[in-house]
Amino acid sequence: MPDLRKNAKASEAGESSGQTAILQAIETLRTELLAKIDEKAEMQTDEMSRQINGLRDELKASIDQANAKASMLDERTASLEEAANTHSDKIADLEQQVVELQKEVAGLSAKTEDLEARSRRCNLRIFGVKEGRETGAKVSTFVAELLQYTMQLDKPPVIDRAHRTIQQPPGDGQPPRAFVVKCHYYQEKETILQKAISSRKLVTGDGDTVRVFPDYTPTVARRRAAFGQAKQLLRQCEGVKYGLLYPAKLRITTPDGERKMFTDPAQAVLFAKGLSSA
């Protein structure tokens, strides 16, 4: 029995010593693992820190570059805004100058138109004289005699000059060119026009049916021609009288005596249509 107890104690002591050795080995392994983990963690931390620092540096460089570009853009924007304001002021000045120039041009055009109209105040235009009738004679003399015969004047009017309109001679079947005639006396020109208006038909000694009109400037002629449609409608209205006043104003007198004045051809057409449908 004593031997068994001794053996049991010895066995327990051996087991205890073995467990202690195992525990020590485990502790040693644990310590080594922790040391390696710490070493790895430190290495990874350093690597991550380097990478983060590198990214931070790159990001900072990118931000600095972006800030520099933004600063340049701000400067350019400010410069462009300043230039735009300057140009806007200049444009406003130019627009004002254009308005003033337009007024000046309009005034000069009106003066030019008035001067041209004054230079034509003694002029007439004669339409319908066959081409070549004046051949072999002085044109002014030919026209003076033509007007005396056609208008039944006591004597030939004094004509300063006369000529066909400056354009290509007409072809076969085309109307002859008009005569532009400058009378020496304004009153003689007015007398001729009054006779032309009062005569239903004017026939020359050669048998040409002619018409006589004032020699208007191109601008006035276009403005007067714009009333053509209204005049055509008014011709169909019984009892309506009308006349085209200088420079371009249509006067209409209705059958009941009402008088209307029109400077707008479109308004005149509307009024004439109303009369024709009444």
From TrEMBL:
Protein's UniProt keywords contain Transport: no
Organism: Mugilogobius chulae (yellowstripe goby)
Protein name, entry field: L1 transposable element RRM domain-containing protein
Signal peptide residue numbers: none
Record InterPro entries: L1_C, Transposase_22
Keyword Coiled coil attached: yes
PANTHER family named among the record's database cross-references: L1 TRANSPOSABLE ELEMENT-RELATED
UniProt lineage: Eukaryota, Metazoa, Chordata, Craniata, Vertebrata
Coiled-coil stretches: 56-118
Keywords: Coiled coil
